[in-house]
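Pilot study result, target chain (624 residues):
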Amino acid sequence: MWISERRNPTCGDLNIVMRDALLFPQKHFLHWVEAMSLLGLVSGVAGMLDVLQTVMPSDHHPAISDFLHDAKRFVLKNRQIADEAPLQIYCAGLIFAPQSSIIRTKFEAEIPTWICQLPRVMEKWSAELQALEGHSGSVLSVAFSPDGRLLASGSDDKTVRLWDTATSLLQQILESQSSSVSSVAFSPDGRLLASGSDKTIRLWDTATGALQKTLEGHLSFVLLVTFSPDGRLLASGSDDETVRLWDTATGTLQRTLQGHSGFVHSVAFSPDGRLLASGSDKTIRLWDTATGTLQQTLQGHSGFVHSVAFSPDDRLLASGSSDKTIRLWDTAAGTLQQTLESHSSWVRSVAFSPDSRLLVSSSNDETVCLWDTVTGTLQQTLQGHSGFVHSVAFSPDGRLLASGSSDKTIRLWDTAICALQQTLEDHSSSVSSMAFSPDGRLLASGSYKTVRLWDTATGALQQTLDGHWSSVRSMAFSPDGRLLASGSNYDTVRLWDTSTGALQQTLDGHWSVVRSVAFSPDGRLLASGSDDETVRLWDTATGALQQTLEGHSSSVRSVAFSPDGRLLASGSDKTMRFWDTVTGVLQKILNVNGLIDSLEFAQGGSCLITNLGIWTSSSSKDSG
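Predicted structure:
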């Protein structure tokens, strides 16, 4: 009601709107979110905040605009918590908000007094806005509607899903594919959605979800589809080594473009629709869309070309390849302008921002990279996916970035806060784990076979620790910062001297990936959790195994000692288990609704802070 009454203010009402809009959330924002949660309406809160932002000129009222932006970030981050336990917004919601969050600052007094020690959190909101979950297979393609209100995703699970970008809610599921959906694309007017699968292309009505047409003609799997700028043509690339052009009104095949000697992974129209670029056999080919004649062949990649994209200003063509590079070409001359290198594996997808200033790329190395198209410099590396990132797309206004991955999620990123503070470069493979020292002066980063120690103030590399035989999946500093423990995919834990970089101990015993490590408060014990479903306790001085704690029926993803060191908590198969560290006896089991990826005892030890909420010593989840 508060929002709806202010959607269309008159000029005379504007000052009242501004006054109320500032006063109400400053006093009652959390109460409002709580009430909406209890009514089952929390999913609409983000959209309501968007509505309010449209009547708030940010240049005239920056304080209100900043508050609303922060409020939306808070709601998106905590929507699931609010749905399940509304009062948790005062506990988990606030204490896990970034230090500089406006909501956290204004409502800090609402944090329950029984929380003795607050967890370490980020200084600012990260670039990741939301993870959209629902697909049961890899997400192979994502695309925004022209008005930015919808996001389409195509998956290995044979479905297309339509999402509301304001609320992140699922709007429709389009089913009728007999195979993986490799590509999705909206028509320029947003009325149609094309999906490529098996040997066919399907055209859907985006309003009703009804199938309009099925385009048949390819002899093998359709890998990519895209509409021409005027919407009259649809181009498709296929495993049959051809590009086909279709009339979208009638569904008839107009042209078949032949010449590639490999799978056609990507196609893209130029902004004026006169040219079509196709990527395949280490080459990019440019075709005249009116005649179907080949205009130019661009050579330079040493691997298959997986993605091509024209810049909106028509000056550049970007291509991403299995040779791990992105190349920028002058579209007029066909000459290579720049080669962009940072990814450690195949480049799966490339896309330009609406103003042509940024290029985004995604890769099998599980990262998304943002590049300056003028200088070719890497602006930001976005991490969060746990699988190949198959597809990326900018929203029409450039404010959102979507990425789809084999981890079965779509992630939405805020491009406005992709602000790079420092780039720490030296790893030759993906960074799989990180940890800060207790005093914050060192950052440890784990990668394939190595750990690196960095000075956080200067960004300088301090030490390179070699010895692991595989990727380093978990790390922790000892309480005094003198030791670093690292757990590996190759089932070992290693203890390092942080001042000299010398290996102190190799702890053998696990027979699978070591996902979590933690030191006891006095530094004498180290706990390790593994995919072998066990927790092990080690003597850090001698490296001797003290206890093997068995009982979990799945990977142990997180471990933490109580402040007095007498208890160890471990998170795994929708349970948390509490163990006596002296005897190894199981003390308690708490059932939870999800995976415990992180856990930490509060200072007094009376409650446990996790990624799913806060639990008290009474064995039930606290609701605030």
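One observation from the pilot: The domain at 433-616 is CATH 2.130.10.10 (Methylamine Dehydrogenase; Chain H). A full batch analysis is planned for the follow-on phase.
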